[in-house]
């Protein structure tokens, strides 16, 4: 085989494989389109009852805890917010503060994994009116959000 023909074959092979070659994961989370999975549950549920699982593609800023934990918009947590405790570009932890007259308390954290995935958990303690609950998240950045 001539070197010119071999070069064309190599170029064609690289052109076929290029879309399959993964780009390195970003070093830190950025706003964009994410494939998110949330698992929400309560530890005191009867055995055999699974957690609620929700998956969706959503444009989010992973540094915004309200975007990461949609359970915060539930009426049982109305008046609650996550206050930063510690944080870096790759991880953060929060304390749940509720100004709604309840005794609810909790904490949350998220971390940017080496594989480019986002992982986190929100834990809310029960009070005299509400059961304890948790929301776990997994996410993968798919790209930029379209305008």
UniProtKB/TrEMBL annotation:
Keywords of this protein's UniProt record, alphabetized?
A: Signal
Q: Where is the signal peptide?
A: 1-24
Give the source species. Answer: Thauera sinica
Protein name in the entry: DUF3617 domain-containing protein
């Amino acid at each position: 085989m001539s070197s010119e023909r071999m070069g064309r074959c190599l170029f064609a092979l690289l052109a076929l494989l290029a879309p399959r070659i993964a780009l390195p994961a970003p070093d830190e989370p950025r706003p964009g389109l994410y494939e998110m999975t949330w698992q929400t549950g309560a530890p005191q549920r009867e055995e055999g009852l699974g957690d609620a699982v929700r998956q969706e593609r959503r444009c989010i800023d992973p540094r915004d805890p309200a975007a990461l934990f949609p359970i915060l918009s539930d009426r049982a947590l109305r008046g609650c917010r996550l206050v930063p405790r510690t944080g870096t570009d790759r991880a953060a932890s929060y304390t749940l503060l509720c100004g709604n007259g309840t005794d609810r308390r909790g904490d949350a954290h998220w971390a940017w994994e080496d594989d480019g995935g986002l992982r986190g958990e929100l834990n809310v303690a029960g009070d005299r009116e509400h059961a304890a609950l948790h929301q776990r998240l997994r996410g993968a950045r798919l790209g930029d959000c379209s305008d």
